[in-house]
Amino acid sequence: MAQNGTAENGVAEEIPALPFPQPVKVQDIRHTKIFIDNEWHTSSRGRTFPTFNPATGVRICDVEEADKEDVDKAVEAAKAAGQRGSPWRRVDASSRGRLLHKLADLMERDRLLLATLETLDTGKPFLQSFFIDLDGSIKTLRYYAGWTDKIHGKSLPIGWGIFFKSLVSPCINMASGLLFQAGFPPGVVNIVPGFGPTAGAAIACHMNIDKVAFTGSTEVGQLIKEAAAKSNLKRVTLELGGKNPCIVFADCDLQLAVEETQKGAFYNQGQCCTAASRVFVEESIHEEFVRRSIENAKKIVIGDPLDPRTSHGPQIDRQQFDKIMDLIESGKKEGAKLEYGGAAVEEKSLFIQPTIFSGVKDHMRIAKEEIFGPVQCIFSFKSQQKAIERANSSQYGLVSAVFTTNMDRALSVSAALETGTVWINCYNALHAQTPFGGYKMSGNGRELGEYALAEYSEVKAVTIKLSETL
């Protein structure tokens, strides 16, 4: 595999070994079946689908393919788990928190294995899987474990002899093959791997599912909302696409802005809804910003995702690879200047070089469409107002970033940006405590933080007429 390194000749082997955990070797994949009612099941229709390592093309395993019948069984198990008197309903709030902590403990214990599996399945560099994905998952479980016994209703008098009480019914779900050891009762968590037109469609239109949370494309999000409306009007929260702007002002810490915007553009090979794909740079520093961005991109190490030295892996599959390459070609044809990359690493691989375009105009495809690949588009701007207008001129509104040392400017610009998240002098700063979600076609509802609890809760108002006698 061709690689880029920090040395002049770009050979990754010259990079010294890093003092980081080494990925474990996975000899066999044991859990490939459908998980319902704390038991492993084969597909009701007897179908499986293969999953491949995108770095090598090697088949990892075959996974049972769930269909409508399997979704129905999972829903039945979940309904039974939620009935009054069930083992789950008898678990008090504090004990539910302890179960979540136990699951987090088990994930900590098996962190090397889980990170290796994630890298094998997605091609994500191992250190990103270990230090970012697993760390974020564990912290999220611990964060909500602390909430289980702190979700309260309210009581208040509303008039003479009238008393009001609100009741909140929370539901916090999680998924892992470690559920047995953590001690979750049957039916609380069910895992039904499958495809959108079959298992996904069955979930979206199921009359006994009350809530769907979806992360994916805007087009599929629209289909889910339509299915929810036509079925039981189930609650839907959507975290969809993004075409995320960064505004870099001349007074910023320039090297910080270069590093952070590239971290946003190239993390997970650009396969992130938060990808920093539109970077607006003030005209006076535009040329230097581009030069430093090119130099920074040359340091990115392309190679085996299981090698801890690798920072850039393959795209997830051939379909995504072809889409990205088509958009790169469109950038060239429409007049953007290809400053770096823009090609596959090898003829038959799914690796694409980190790619930088300058001179990008707002009408170009690479400026409007979500690329979901390692492509950084650099624009220039003259005025703050124009930069804000251009940043907001998108159907998406997921995240954005502002780079400046002037905090008054940073706050005023962040208030004007039409995105659910704004980062100031940083990028991809995601935390379990911070609500995450988008404006416009980037979706609705919020994940993470206290705000997310409302998405999974029903509020009931109970009004009591009190006796007027003492």
Automatic annotation (TrEMBL):
Alphabetized GO MF terms: aldehyde dehydrogenase (NAD+) activity
Q: Identify the residues that the record assigns to the Aldehyde dehydrogenase domain, covering every copy.
A: 41-160, 177-462
Which Enzyme Commission number(s) are listed? Answer: 1.2.1.3
**InterPro entries hit by this protein:** Ald_DH/histidinol_DH, Ald_DH_C, Ald_DH_CS_CYS, Ald_DH_CS_GLU, Ald_DH_N, Aldehyde_DH_dom
Q: Which residues form the active site?
A: 239
User: Which is one Pfam family of this protein?
Assistant: Aldedh
Q: Tell me its family.
A: Belongs to the aldehyde dehydrogenase family.
Q: Spell out the protein name for this chain.
A: aldehyde dehydrogenase (NAD(+))
Which species?
Dicentrarchus labrax
